[in-house]
Structures are given as C-alpha cells and as structure tokens.
From TrEMBL, chain B:
One of its GO terms (cellular component) is cell envelope. It comes from the Bacteria. Belongs to the [NiFe]/[NiFeSe] hydrogenase large subunit family. This is HupV protein. Its cofactor is Fe cation; Ni(2+). Fe cation binds at residues 63, 480. Ni(2+) binds at residues 60, 63, 477. InterPro entries: Ni-dep_hyd_lsu, Ni-dep_hyd_lsu_Ni_BS, NiFe-Hase_large, NiFe/NiFeSe_hydrgnase_LSU. The keyword Phosphoprotein does not apply. Mg(2+) binds at residues 41, 427, 483. Keywords: Iron, Magnesium, Metal-binding, Nickel, Oxidoreductase.
C-alpha cells in the first residue's frame, strides 16, 4: 500500500475508558475527519463516529471474519479482558453473545495491520492495575511481558507485530501519524522500538522541551503542586525516563503534564499504573530520588546535582517555590 | 411475543445491549445490559488515597474531569482541604469546559446523525438534515470538530491535557494562570461563544437563556425560519416526529448541584424534583440494589457497599448496579439539573410534556448557553498572582464524599481511608442511575421505563429508529455505568 492507495480501518473498543477516542477527536489542524481523509484513511466503522447501526456493524464484522471484506487496519482501544476464568465474559460484544476477545482474535488474524491504541490495548494499562480483577492484558503484551491476548509470535498479514501506540490517553498525532505511515507503506519493523511502539514519538523523552528544564539543571525543585520548579526531586516526575515527545508535540494547544503543573507518570510505559509508590511523590533513598535518568551514572548525577544546587541563581531558587514569576530575569544576583 | 436483542449501539460511549419485548407495534418491556465490567472499585482498594486522582479519571474518557472533580472533592472532604478562590474558578472552568463540550459532542456527533438516516428519506426536512448532520460526511461534523479542538485549548492551558489530567487536586488547581494566559482563556471561550451564537443557536446567548416558556420557544423557533441555527432545525424535526411523545420515564429527577460560585452557592442547585415539585436531597437516602446485577451482596448505601462480581447470580442481566433514592429510580442529566435549578423554560416544558427525547435535548443546549456565559464570568474573575492551590495535609483515617454533576448527571464518589490506604471506594455514575436494571421490587431503571411504549416499525418511526432516539436522548456513557 503506497502512494495513492487508501487504507480502510475498523476500530473496536473493549476494556478501556474511551479516552483515546476522545483524545483523537482533539486532533488539531486539520480536524480529525479532514485529516483521516488527507491521510488516505477510510473508516469502515468506528463506534463513536459511524452512522452504520447495529445490524450493519454486525454484518461488517461477519464479512471481515469470513474474508468477504478486506481489512487493512484493525485498531483496538482498551484492554482485553480474559476473565472471569478465561471466559472473556467481562466484555461480551453487545448483540453477538460472544466475548470481545474472541472477536479480536479472529479479526486480528485477517487484518493487514493490527494497532493497539493506548496503553490499555498495548499492555493492559490501568484496567490491569491493583488486583487486576478482570485479568486484563494488552493485544500482544501482558504488562512488560510479550504474550498478551494474541501471543508473542503473532504477526499481522503484513508481517508486523501489533503496533503499540501507547499513552494514557494516547496523543491524537501519535495515532494519526502511525496510521498515515501505515497507509503509505512507510512503517516497518525498524521503525518500532523494543516495545513495538512507533519510534516516531518514543525516540524523545517527555523531559525534552519541558519548560521546567532550567529548574532541572539546578535541581531547583517544586515542593507543592503549582510551584514552578522541576517536579522530579519531590513530586514524582518521570519525564527523564518517559519515552514520548509530549513537551515537543504538545497537547490541546500548549499543554502537557508538566506544563499543567503535575508530574509525568510515564504513561507510555508498560505497568505505569503500578509504580510501587505514590504517583505524585518521588521515592527517595537517603534523600536521593530513585529512578534517575536511565542513561546517567548515579554518582555523576549526585555530584552534578550538588554542584548545580550550590550554583543556583537566586532568581531560579525563588521562582521554583512560587506559582508565578516572582524574580525576573536580568536582575543582578544577590550576594551574601 | 419474541424477545429481541438490540446492540451494539454505536455513537454511545462504550458498549450497550438492550433486550426488548415487542408487542403490538411498540415496546412492552425493556432490559438494559451493560456488557462491560472493569472493576475500578476493586482496583482502588489498598491504594494510597491521593493515587485515586490517577485512577478515577480513567473510569471514563469522556467525563474524565468530572471523575477527577468527584475524587478531588472526596479527598478534600476527607482531608478538610480549603481551596483558594482562583483554584475554585480554575476547577469550575476545566469542569465546565468538559461538560459543555460533552453536550455538543453528543448533539453533533452522537445524536443528530440518526435523523440523517435513510429511514427518514421521505420526510420533507430530510435533505437539509442529511446535508448538515450525516455522520462523518455532513457539513456540521468537521465544523464542530474545528471549533471543539480550538475550545479544548483551554484544557491544554489549565489542565495540561484532556482527558486524564492531574491538575485537579483537593486543594485547587496545579496550574496558575498568568495575566497573558487569562487573556488567552478569554479569547478561547469567546471564540466558542461565536460558534454557539452563529451555528448552534443563530442567536445571541442572552436571548436563549431568557426563553421562559414553551410558547416563547415556539415563537423564537418560528422567527428563525429561513436561516435556522441547529437548535431550530432540531426543534422543527422534533415537532414533525413528535419527539416530545417519546422516551418518558417516571419524571423523578435528581441533581447534586454543580460549580461552586464565589459566594459558596452552586451555579446549578442541588435537589430532587418529583410529583411536580422541588424537594431537598437527602444523600443518605441513596443505596445500590444488586438483585439483577452480576454482583454479590445485598442492597447497601455507597458508604459501606462493596463491589464483587458474581457472574453466576441468578436473575441478573447486567454488570450495572441499581442505585435508588429512598427506593425510587430517578433520572439524572441536564434536564434534571435545569429543572431542579428552576429554569423557567425547562419547568414549563416538563409541566407540558414531561421528560422526553425533546426536553432532554433542549435542556442540554440551553445549559450549554448558560455554562458558556458563566465561563466568561469566571475567566474575568481570575486574579493572576493570587494562589490557585492550597496544600492539604493527608489524614491516615478519614472518610469523604465527593458529589458533583458530570454532563450526563449526578456523580458521587464515596471514600474511606484507614491506615493511610483506601479501605473502600464506591462510585455511582450518572448512567448507573439512568441505565440501571430492575431492583428487588421489580422497579425498572429510567431507560427501561422510558423505552416502554416506544413505537417499533411505525410509519413515522420505521424499524427501531425510535428506540435509538430514546436511548441516545440520555447521552449514555457505558464505561461509567458499570466501571
Ligand atoms: S518537571 Fe519533569 S520533565 Fe520537566 S524538567 Fe523536571 S524532570 Fe524534566
Ligand atoms: S508527560 Fe508523561 S504521563 Fe504525561 S502524557 Fe506524556 S508520557 Fe504520559
């Protein structure tokens, strides 16, 4: 599928919140419907958008399953619910008397591409949190472990694993750019990272482009929510580990988690829903935050931090603990 | 009489199945099934209380902020948090933006496309409605989506992102607004007001909120002929199809009240409307019945109720529990809110024809106008430089209740903390009320009542199209329902 060819798309929702579709509706300039069209994507059926009522939708699913209708891209949003006791009864597809996991298995088997939209469909996500009461998993991952509903050896008919457009919710551009690349035949195995996420958005960290970077440099830290300082030392920010371009490709105009005043909770990663500590508090050992940047030796980090803290300009110190700029740039540093 | 299974319903949030007994051209009885269960109340057990702010919004991607607000209120109630005035305004703005955009998303993307369907091809109004509202291809959808996206920049600025923000905290908002940003917010809200005034109403908002009776609405609509806005288009086809005769439930309505104004009173009042008049709400009268749900246990108030799936429960047909107020099924939503708040247009419409497909949609659009006007007021009231957040000190043992209104109606979170951990967490969502199953007394939920008597295969409403209107008139959110 390349050049002028168009790609059709079927979207199913299971054990999630529908938030990835809601996020998708926020696609910015052009709007979602225009963008699908200019990207060469035709909707076969989407539960929130399509006119086709229930009879038509069920007929479509049957036609795809039996091969009468070609399916290019199967998008699944929400976790796959295997419980109770492997029956899949926690989500029966309405009107069919069959569990959704059976439908997904059969449709994935005939789809040219299979796309997990959001961290639930990719890894299990929040629905798999706590005691995981519904035995939720992702399409091809169960948390961080390959497997999931389709098994680690699954390949769609184009030879790719389920593509994990992880995020909670996922960014409209991550989804639309992935689909656009697929429609153009320009997304191959090398374009996926080691968790089958498109590298087009996971080659950057949420930390890149964060407006708090200057505070980070000096470890000038926010203590309370709404402080302007870096959120890493005390308030749980995982932006230096989270693989996603959130602060470069912003959300809803100028937004991002850290711009909104709260920590990055690494929502594109498997098992982000169970960090093992309070989300908005940084766990520390002997005053040193756990979970430092992944590619920096700890000793260096500590040495640099104490140096940076000692060298912190007064302006940055003051602003870090305020919710608006109280010390303006250009002022002479106060000397003791 | 054959029982028919209807589903999946598209253009509702989440998955829904309805079983109908169809007699002589109409629905004799209905059973509503929420076929998806995820177990949020189980997932939350044992968690650090503040982490509820991560999990709760993910109950629902379409009323994510409402879930956050309810969780933040429950935590704030437990910790006795104080929110500074800016924080209250910021949370109101974020919450109002979601509720407003949900109303219009429902109107443009979920509800109106049904009237563009081929079932109505012979109707004189069909060509116009088809051109404007056809799913995906009509002129309204991309126009609305553009306005929607621009408006949701408010979320980027105030909440970081939407859905699933952590900006909403017991002590206020994590995002302080600068003087420049306050102006920007004003522009974003003002631009959306234009969309409402040019497309939705083709009239000034002040004119809409001043409509005070059924007659006034009819006069207003008549004056719109020639260049109708989308509300007037809907009213015209609503009249032609008799939408005011479809989907009446028990006319018992509840609202928890919403948006905290500076003087402490809510913008929309709290209360119950039944037997034709307004009453105060006794929150302790709420209990959830599980006699027809795949849930273990007995009827219990949310403070002490548990959620434990029992897929084998005899007589059960849904994952949804059946919340009742003093044993009665109630209807919640924009109609209930505006009625309880005493808006004269809605009071008059309900006095004339009760709660039905038409009044539910009119209430939603009227409320949209009221919300936008309030948002402009709140934006102006923000004081850059003053605090947006007060820290709240967690308590190891506490209880809290968070009550608010999502777009679809009353939402409550009941929280108990013991030893610094969540000991119990119960969520009662709007569609849990509206789409609840029968209770032990055999009393059906609001949609089940509303579907009874709905015409099937009638000349005016071919096939099951009227069933679809009734279902969608509630703007159901199925992921919230069973959570
Ligand atoms: S707040 Fe997080 S993303 Fe921003 S600079 Fe600090 S560590 Fe990086
Ligand atoms: S900043 Fe972090 S938590 Fe927020 S959306 Fe990006 S990856 Fe997810």
């Amino acid at each position: 599928m390349s050049g002028g060819a168009r790609m059709n798309l079927l979207w199913l929702q299971s054990g999630g919140c529908g938030g990835c579709t809601m996020s998708l509706l926020c696609a910015d300039t052009p709007d979602l419907l225009t963008r699908l069209d200019t990207s060469g994507i035709d909707l076969l059926w989407h539960p929130s958008l399509s006119e086709a009522g229930m009879d038509e939708a069920l007929r479509l699913l049957e036609d795809i399953r039996s091969g009468r209708q070609r399916l290019d891209a199967l998008c699944v949003e929400g976790s796959l619910l295997r419980g109770p006791h492997g029956t899949g009864r926690f989500h029966m597809l309405a009107g069919t008397g069959r569990p959704m996991i059976e439908w997904v298995r059969e449709l994935a088997a005939v789809a040219r591409y299979c796309v997990a939209v959001g961290s639930c469909a990719a890894f299990g996500g929040v629905t798999a949190g706590g005691s995981n009461p519904t035995d939720a998993c992702g399409l091809q991952y169960d948390g961080r472990y390959p497997g999931g509903l389709l098994g680690k050896d699954y390949r769609s008919s184009a030879g790719l694993p389920a593509i994990n457009v992880a995020g909670c919710p996922t960014h409209p551009d991550w989804v639309l750019d992935t689909l656009h690349l697929l429609a153009r035949g320009e997304l191959g195995a090398d374009d996926l990272d080691d968790l089958a996420r498109p590298r087009m958005y996971t080659d950057l960290l949420a930390h890149h482009g964060c407006p708090r970077n200057e505070f980070y440099e000096y470890k000038a830290s926010a203590i309370e929510p709404s402080d302007l300082g870096c959120l890493m030392e005390h308030l749980g920010c995982m932006g230096t580990q989270a693989q996603a371009d959130c602060n470069v490709r912003t959300w809803n105009g100028e937004g991002s988690c850290t711009r909104g005043g709260y920590a990055c909770i690494n929502c594109t990663a498997p098992e982000f829903e169970e960090p093992g500590h309070a989300f908005l508090r940084t766990p520390t050992v002997a005053g040193i935050p756990l979970g430092l940047p992944t590619d920096m030796p700890k000793a260096w980090f500590i040495a640099l931090s104490s140096l940076a803290k000692a060298a912190t300009p007064q302006r940055i110190k003051e602003n870090a603990r305020a919710d608006h700029v109280v010390a303006r740039p250009g002022r002479k540093p106060d000397r003791k | 009489m054959a029982r028919q299974i209807v589903g999946p319903f598209n253009r509702v949030e989440g998955d829904l199945e309805v079983q109908l007994d169809v007699g002589d051209g109409q629905v004799d009885a209905a059973w509503v099934n929420s076929p998806l269960y995820r177990g949020f109340e189980q997932i939350l057990l044992g968690k650090i209380p503040g982490d509820a702010l991560v999990y709760a919004p993910r109950v629902c991607g379409i009323c994510s902020v409402s879930q956050s607000v309810a969780a933040a209120f429950a935590l704030g109630d437990a910790y006795r948090a104080e929110t500074p005035p800016n924080g209250i305004l910021a949370l109101d703005l974020i919450h109002a933006a979601e509720n407003l955009i949900d109303h219009l998303t429902h109107f443009y993307l979920f509800f109106m496309p049904d009237f563009a369907r081929p079932e109505y091809a012979a109707q004189p109004w069909h060509a116009d409605i088809h051109a404007r509202f056809r799913a995906v291809e009509g002129s309204a959808a991309p126009e609305f989506l553009q306005a929607r996206t621009a408006f949701m920049h408010l979320m980027g600025l105030l909440a970081g992102k939407w859905p699933h923000s952590l900006a909403i905290q017991p002590g206020g908002c994590t995002r302080a607004v600068s003087a420049r940003e306050r102006l920007h917010l004003g522009n974003v809200v003002g631009a959306f007001r234009r969309f409402l005034e040019q497309r939705v109403f083709a009239a000034p908002l002040d004119e809409i909120v001043a409509l005070d009776s059924r007659d006034a609405l009819q006069h207003w609509q008549a004056a719109q002929a020639g260049q109708p806005g989308d509300l007037a288009r809907f009213l015209a086809l609503g009249e032609a199809l008799g939408l005011h005769t479809l989907g009446r439930a028990a006319d018992r309505f509840m609202s928890f009240g919403a948006y905290r104004e500076a003087d402490g009173a809510p913008l929309f009042a709290r209360g119950v409307w039944r037997d034709g008049s307004l009453h105060s709400l006794d929150v302790d009268g709420i209990a959830e019945d599980v006699s027809h749900s795949w849930m273990a246990g007995d009827t219990a108030p949310p403070r002490t109720a548990r959620t434990l799936p029992d897929p084998g429960r005899e007589g059960a047909y849904t994952w949804c529990k059946a919340p009742r107020l003093h044993g009665k099924a109630v209807e919640v939503g924009a109609l209930a809110r505006q009625l309880v708040d005493g808006h004269p247009l809605i009071c008059d419409l309900v006095a004339a024809t009760g709660g039905n497909v038409l009044t539910r949609v009119v209430a939603r659009l009227l409320e949209s106008a009221r919300i936008l006007l309030a948002m402009q007021r709140w934006t102006d009231a923000l004081v850059p430089g003053e605090p947006f957040h007060n820290p709240a000190a967690p308590l190891a043992d506490a209880e809290g209740i968070g009550l608010t209104e999502a777009a679809r109606g009353s939402l409550g979170h009941w929280l108990r903390i013991e030893g610094g951990r969540i000991r119990n967490y119960q969520i009662v969502s709007p569609t849990t009320w509206n789409f609840s199953p029968r209770d032990a007394a055999g009393q059906p939920g609001a949609l089940e009542q509303a579907l009874t008597g709905t015409p099937v295969d009638s000349p005016r409403h071919p096939r099951k199209i009227a069933v679809q209107h009734v279902v969608r008139s509630f703007d159901p959110c199925m992921v919230c329902t069973a959570h």
